[in-house]
Amino acid sequence: MAYNIAIVGATGVVGQEMLSILAERLFPVNEVFALASRASIGREVSFGDKDLKCLDLATFDFSRVDIALFSAGSAVSKEWGPKAAKAGAIVIDNSSHFRMDPDVPLVVPEVNPDAVAGFAKKNIIANPNCSTAQLVVALKPLHDRARIKRVVVSTYQSASGAGKDAMDELWNQTKGIYVGDEPTPEQFTRQIAFNVIPHIDDFMEDGSTKEEWKMVSETKKMLDRSIKLTATCVRVPVFVGHSEAVNIELEEELSAEEARAILRESPGLLVIDNPEEEQYVTPVECVGDFATFVSRVREDPTVENGLALWVVSDNLRKGAALNAVQIAELLLNRGLLPQRDA
User: What confidence score (pLDDT) does residue 318 get?
Assistant: First the structure.
């Protein structure tokens, strides 16, 4: 069987990654439709060895497709997600709009694959926030073994998490500083080149940001509502790849050695951890890879049953496009997609 797929937001960095990953993973595709705003009609995007011309989202007939992968922001998902779902397409949405809807499953296939069956209520499945996705892949096997009580996570998030314009701003500011230009923030609240910014998304009444709130609420929804989690999310001058310093308090004792062994055997993870030979992963090394990498696994002596680890992943892949395609694969493997002949 082969399936018709629409990519909504095909000209964006995540939309283009979705097209690349569908081709790389040989998803059984009959026809792919690249959808974008009216301003991008006719613009070409790549799918494998093919060039696709973008079609107008506003006039597209979603009854032509089996799956619609959305990556065009919350406003677009809010308007067009339900319309696509009503037309019969299974919507896999990368925005934050549907994540906390109790009738929409929030899915990371390595963490809560059984939740995918809940798509039938609205014909929509939500993709988690990029920083949450890589975190829960690392937490899941440790939680299964020793039950996590509390997590403290500090993120180091790349510019690509804010889109192409944000990446361009980092590039232009970096170049400009070398020739004496004054950096002018537009996409960020402060200069991003040679700087870090402890502010991602809007501030909330309690002083946290929405990005930090997302990590808390999404982890609870997917993994365990009893887990206590606090996050500090920071934007750093890196183009692609999110990093996280994670401290974990467990109910049961778990040595760093056993934790390493558990993580090595867990789906979606690669453990690169040998301090004596300076073996650990940085964002530059994770770009283009499917895995979530774990390094610096060690015991935290400041709390009972404590662990600390370093988690790195390509945020455009596992944090967004790859996870969406994996959800589509999960639907396929569980026989939840409608049958369509090639």
Answer: 96
The active-site residue, picked from 97, 143, 233, 242, is: 242
Is a pLDDT exceeding 50 seen at residue 342? no
Q: What pLDDT score does 338 carry?
A: 79
Give the separation between CA 66 and CA 101, rounded to whole angstroms. 22
Torsion of CA 259, 265, 270, 276, to 10 degrees: 50
Model's pTM, two decimal places?
0.95
Contact 198, 120 (CB under 8 A): no
Q: Tokens 């049953």 identify what position?
A: 305
Please, is 106 exposed, middle or buried when counting C-beta atoms within 10 Å of its C-beta (0-12, 13-18, 19+)? buried
277-314 confidence digits (pLDDT tens): 999 999 999 999 999 999 999 999 999 999 999 999 99
Cα-Cα-Cα-Cα torsion 166, 169, 175, 179, nearest 10 degrees, comes to: -160
Catalytic residue among 130, 143, 233, 286: 130
Contact 194, 177 (CB under 8 A): yes
Structure tokens at 186: 């537009």
- Least confident segment among 89-93, 121-125, 338-342: 338-342
Does the active-site annotation cover 199?
A: no
Structural domains of the chain ordered from first start: 3-128+320-333 (3.40.50.720), 131-315 (3.30.360.10)
The verdict on whether 97 is a catalytic residue reads no
- 218 within 8 A of 210, measured Cβ to Cβ: no
Q: What is the dihedral of CA 323, 326, 327, 330, to 10 degrees?
A: -160
